[in-house]
Fold Thiamine-phosphate pyrophosphorylase.
Amino acid sequence: MPQPTVDYSLYLVTDSTPAILGDRDLADVVAAAVRGGVTVVQYRDKTSDTGAL
């Protein structure tokens, strides 16, 4: 089976810090970004427990 093609034309890198989110929810911010045309989302968080994901 061939590998799917990934569109990297608008790549969002985010985390859950207040500097990024302000008072907004991470899921809402990512959903708005996808509606705005983001094609790939990378979530970075070096401090949270992996079980929280």
